Amino acid sequence: MNEQDASSSPGELLQRDKKSFYVVGVGASAGGLEALERLFDNMPVDSNMAFVVVQHLSPDFKSLMDELLARRTKIPIHRVEDGMEIEANAIYLIPPKKNMELAAGKLQLIDQNLGSLNLPIDIFFRSLAKDAKERAIAVVLSGTGSDGSRGIQDVHEAGGLVVVQSIQSAGFDGMPRSALGTGLADVVCPPDSIASRILEYIQSPSSFVDQAGQDEELSESGELATIFRLFRNQYGIDFSMYKPTTIVRRIERRVKLSRCSSLAEYSQLVEGDSRELDVLYRDLLVEVTQFFRDLDAFQLLRNNIFPRLVERAADTGELRIWVPGCATGEEAYSLAMLATECIERQGVDVDLKLFASDVHQTSMETASSGVYSSASVSRMPIEFRDKYFTRIGDLYHISAELRQKVIFAPHDITKDPPFTRIDLISCRNVLIYFNQEVQKRVLSLFHFGLSVGGILFLGPSESIGDLDKEFEPVDRQWRVYRKLRNVRLTETGPIPPQPALNRVVFNRPSYVATQTRTDKSWLVPEVYDHLLAKYVPPSLLINQHLELVHSFGDSRRLLVQPEGKATLDVLRMVEGDLRTAMNAALHKASTTGTTIMFEGVRVNTTTGERLYRLVAEPYNKSAEKMFLVTLELMQDLPVIDETVAVPFDSADQSAQRIVSLERELDYTKETLQATVEELETSNEELQSANEELVASNEELQSTNEELHGVNEELFTVNSEHQKKITELSQLTEDMDHLLKSTRIGTVFLDNDLKIRKFTAEAKEVFHILDQDIGRPISHIAHNLVDVEPIEDVRQVLETQQPIERAVESRTKGSYLMRVLPYQGIRGLAGVVLTLIDATSILAIHRRLEDPEL
């Protein structure tokens, strides 16, 4: 979804639709000529679209693209001049040595920087998305490299259409493959089918978009309500909270692309096709993001915001950042790089914790992997790329050190509680899609989660609304605000309990809601739950990572949820002596594999301090190592032999645990020291070799990119020349057939009177052979009587006036000889001598003059 859609009214959108035409940006490189010809072969002249063709052109050769395309289509073709206004039903070609942008319906030419890697297709696609918005169509055709794969992200985000040539039909599949790798292609097909697919898309009816112009409450309509219900059931997200016009455009795109005739038909499709539902879900969430998006805004954070935040965090030792709606993680990692750089530059001992959240699980998995394409990292400052990424093949892997500082977690900002004690929240271009009520609630939750003096970083089209008394602007252009005070805002309402803990720990699934059988067997699980809660002592099932898997009985009074992010770490959910006893018991149970029992564990409860017996028992009936911890009130228990139950002494157990940990630490130190010494020697050698390799790699990469660009340009030039050669060969064949069919002896001479070409009939007068091409005509004997054709040839060459006379041949009758100047593109290029057999004509002429013959 684009920001313009989110802020425009439905009526404005509808009015713009009626007076606008689609603009199709076509990116092509090596092998693109054939694809362009096949595309425009099938495009009607009255498509109501403007086509802007952007190629990788050589700066040293004249492009013949306009001539070649003119033979395949009747659509008017223009070579772009600076400031040229585009019109529908026309083709515009980029000139050599220029980049091009679209602004306010006009094409602006920009000189290329020939000293660096140039990506003209990306440059144009970005401007196309900004100017044409949802009426932008980006087409990526054959070519090497990845140009276009970044620009289509902008087109997709703007609500436009992305079309990619199928890899199988591409002469060079680099550009199509890179574009497909983004996952944003709406249509993938051979060039012959592109025209029909685009026409089908733009000519599809938009009846329910018209409805949006009259009805703001689209979320109440039957078809959309069905789609929203599917989203709630499948993904747990409620799109009815979004602005109607925000989602209309995206759903309309999917209606058209799925070739449905109406919203009702599409609603039935998504009900029965989970794949289409997932595609629409990803489309509505707009997963487009990039590293250091809006570089000027990140420079503001780098120079002004982070130095102050890091200085303040030095007091607490922790810098906490939250990126809600992180998508595939580029912005989260960008902020982590800036924060890490600032911490290192200021030389303070600060631990960075960056929480990145989103509702889309697939995006979170991509973000968590920390692996990105070369196209994704191409826009970031090179010093960050070299420092925080490792290149493996065509992919860039985020460094392990930086990855450990970023915590990815599923989170819905419309209903889940916020992370707390946050120093910086970066939520850009998310709020604009919500209705006003949800915006207020989310902003209030952000206010709740921020520390006093914390920074809120929004998108360029977003604002804090009515909370101007709670935030002060730091930078109005980039929507950076600072929290002023701690105050409970009415919009937050009651903060709900931590969802992860509620779902995983305490709640059990409801059997009643899903049970449809007529018998009463469904009551049995509920009875079990009732008996467990009433008679079983508080018990905890814990995995080998000391995370709570399940709770039995009334364990709520013993467990607490710490501030901040929800956790399942059982030792963080208990306090005082209970934490010490549980830690010691679990450690001994894990080490010895036996049941450990402590008596007299003091636990503070709501009714005062009570004494408990704690039993930690290894549970070996599952594939994963588990422990079952039970807590029982001492006053309710029979006396147990002291050899089995050990009286719990907090100080003694803590001391034993410390001694055990010290032994482990000493052993670890000794082992580590030996390993470090070995590694230091190897590391010094590897460091030297690595520096040399890095330097060589950078040089080779730069050279490769330059050669890659030159190769594309040369291939484009070669394709055009090859096409021209084919046409010239055909033309030569046509001329040869024409000369043969006239049966006229013809000799072509250059300015030096050397033979360039001749016909077979000329051999009857001149003693000329095929190998005589290039020889002067004066070296060739002839059969003419009382005439020297070389004299006529020289005279015509000098005067440029034709000569015509009747001549006789010693072997074959009479000829009409004509000597004509040969005018070329650059002036006189030689002489043409023709011999027309006039024997029968002259004989008839003589008989007419002398009747006695």
From TrEMBL:
Record keywords: Chemotaxis, Coiled coil, Hydrolase, Methyltransferase, S-adenosyl-L-methionine, Transferase
GO terms under cellular component: cytoplasm
Catalytic residues as annotated in Swiss-Prot or TrEMBL: S29, H56, D147
Pfam families per UniProt: CheB_methylest, CheR, CheR_N, PAS_10
Coiled-coil regions listed in the entry: 658-713
Gene Ontology MF terms: phosphorelay response regulator activity; protein-glutamate methylesterase activity; protein-glutamate O-methyltransferase activity
Reactions catalysed: L-glutamyl-[protein] + S-adenosyl-L-methionine = [protein]-L-glutamate 5-O-methyl ester + S-adenosyl-L-homocysteine
CheR-type methyltransferase domain mapped to chain residues: 223-486
Gene3D superfamilies tied to this protein: Chemotaxis receptor methyltransferase CheR, N-terminal domain, Methylesterase CheB, C-terminal domain, PAS domain, Vaccinia Virus protein VP39
InterPro entries according to UniProt: Bact_Chemotaxis_MeTrfase (IPR050903), CheB_C (IPR035909), CheR_C (IPR022642), CheR_MeTrfase (IPR000780), CheR_N (IPR022641), CheR_N_sf (IPR036804), SAM-dependent_MTases_sf (IPR029063), Sig_transdc_resp-reg_Me-estase (IPR000673)
Domain CheB-type methylesterase: 17-205
EC number: 2.1.1.80
Domain of life, per lineage: Bacteria
BP GO annotations: chemotaxis; methylation
PANTHER family with a match to the protein in the record: CHEMOTAXIS PROTEIN METHYLTRANSFERASE (PTHR24422), PROTEIN-GLUTAMATE O-METHYLTRANSFERASE (PTHR24422:SF27)
Name recorded for this polypeptide: protein-glutamate O-methyltransferase
Gene: cheR2_1
